[in-house]
Design goal:
This protein has about 425 residues and is mostly helical. The protein has 19 helices and two strands.
């Protein structure tokens, strides 16, 4: 049976109560992220040199495109909605925290173990082959870029039962508290030069976005007119923060500047997220009707069936293409990035990379459906939490420093050891014995 037929069967069996728009936003956001990464990261072979090119550096006007392609707030909003649904289901079935968390961690962490081990092996081979350590680290850091999201999202999942209780008790007051904390951290960052405190906004900013998903689930958003007003005010606030405040334009990294909107997160991302949230939720009803069409919903189901795989491996595909081109003398990268001809070739470029990513997605996406072994005694919550924290720390190290292939490098050893140790604590395996078809 073909993949479209299998997706069609799943689509036909969709429960009536399922919110299809949640799945659509998740799928669309993934495609936006992949498209954005494949556009802003390129290379140029000219003058006998093969050089990596960041379009945000080479063509500063492209920084405005990040206002469209920065959709991480949507991921966390959708995650909040999904976690609320999952927690409600667990409560109805009297499922405890440990059992609930075990299922979430399996779905989150299992697909990425193979990616990190793959790049640990590739980095070692490149190092042994004589490639400079900083070049190897740069390549692996780019390939592992998607994992930063899982590092922080895993921590948000650990806290989801507690934050959901806060929401049910305090409603929008709890949301406003997160926003106030994020704003206070930014104020200390800029006014007091407490840059170290800025890293806590990985929690306050993304917990606030996650809370918006709780509000969506509870149906406490108001009419489309109210949502459009929220979107308009949020866009106005974002514009003021950029032009009257100290924040840079780019919503995904800030080339050539010391200040970044994402490293660590700033309240600009919350303003952007509220704009996206208000705009997208204002059109939910017509979108739900559109998603009732068989073809549209089947496509949404198909993308969601391999969503983690295409997200995790899309940068690896890009870097492998760069590597093959470098070995072939720069084939395919002789057009000046940002030129008219370069832009004309972008649709073909995106389709080509997509055709390379698809077979990888088909091969590895079953890892997304691996469940905890049936009949195994439940792992205690302390072990799951400890494992998740260790895995998150390992991912953070790998994302920040990369894997340079040096087996004696403390960052290499620590990143891989923390990830594998965390996975073992959570009862995960890099290659599960039984992988769903």
């Amino acid at each position: 049976m073909g993949i479209w037929s299998r997706a069609g069967e799943l689509a036909a069996n969709t429960p009536a109560e399922r919110n299809r728009y949640v799945d659509f936003l998740r799928a669309a956001s993934i495609l936006f992220v992949i498209t954005g990464h494949w556009l802003i990261t390129t290379a140029y072979s000219g003058g006998g040199n093969f050089t990596a090119v960041m379009m945000l550096d080479a063509r500063p006007w492209t920084q405005w495109l990040t206002w469209v392609f920065q959709v991480m707030p949507i991921f966390f909003i959708v995650g909040g909605y999904s976690n609320a649904v999952s927690l409600e289901s667990a409560h109805r079935r009297s499922t405890g925290y440990a059992a609930w968390l075990a299922g979430r961690l399996h779905r989150l962490l299992t697909p990425l173990l193979l990616l990190v081990l793959f790049w640990a092996a590739i980095s070692l081979l490149l190092n042994l082959g004589g490639l400079p350590a900083d070049t190897v680290a740069f390549a692996s850091r780019g390939a592992l870029l998607p994992t930063w999201f899982l590092a922080i999202y895993t921590m948000i999942v650990l806290l989801a039962p507690a934050t959901y209780r806060l929401w049910r008790r305090w409603g929008f007051l709890s949301l406003f508290a997160y926003i106030a904390l994020a704003a206070a951290v930014d104020a200390a960052f800029f006014l007091l030069d407490w840059t170290w405190l800025g890293w806590t906004n990985y929690f306050w900013v993304w917990l606030a976005a996650h809370h918006l998903g709780f509000a969506w689930r509870d149906g406490r958003l108001g009419t489309p007119k109210v949502l459009l007003a929220i979107a308009g005010l949020s866009l106005l606030l974002l514009t003021c923060l950029i032009f009257a405040g100290p924040y840079p334009i780019a919503m995904a990294g800030s080339p050539g500047e010391a200040i970044s909107n994402t490293l660590p997160p700033k309240i600009t991302l919350l303003a952007l997220g509220c704009f996206q949230f208000g705009l997208l939720l204002a059109i939910e009803k017509p979108m739900q009707r559109w998603l009732g069409r068989t073809g549209v919903w089947t496509g949404t189901v198909l993308i969601n069936s391999m969503i983690m795989t295409i997200y995790l491996w899309h940068m690896t595909v890009l870097l492998l293409v760069f590597g093959l081109s470098y070995l072939d003398g720069g084939l395919g990268f002789t057009t000046v990035p940002g030129s008219a001809q370069w832009w004309l070739w972008r649709p073909a470029w995106l389709l080509g990379l997509g055709s390379l990513l698809l077979p990888i997605a088909l091969l590895l996406s079953p890892l997304e459906r691996v469940a905890p072994p049936a009949g195994r005694s439940p792992l205690p919550a302390w072990r799951l939490v400890s494992g998740a924290v260790c895995a998150g720390a390992g991912l953070t190290l790998a994302t920040l420093f990369g894997l340079n292939g040096d087996p004696l490098s403390w960052s290499n050893v620590a990143a891989v050891a923390l990830l594998l140790g965390g996975a073992a604590l959570c009862g995960l395996q890099p290659l599960p014995r039984r992988i769903p078809t």
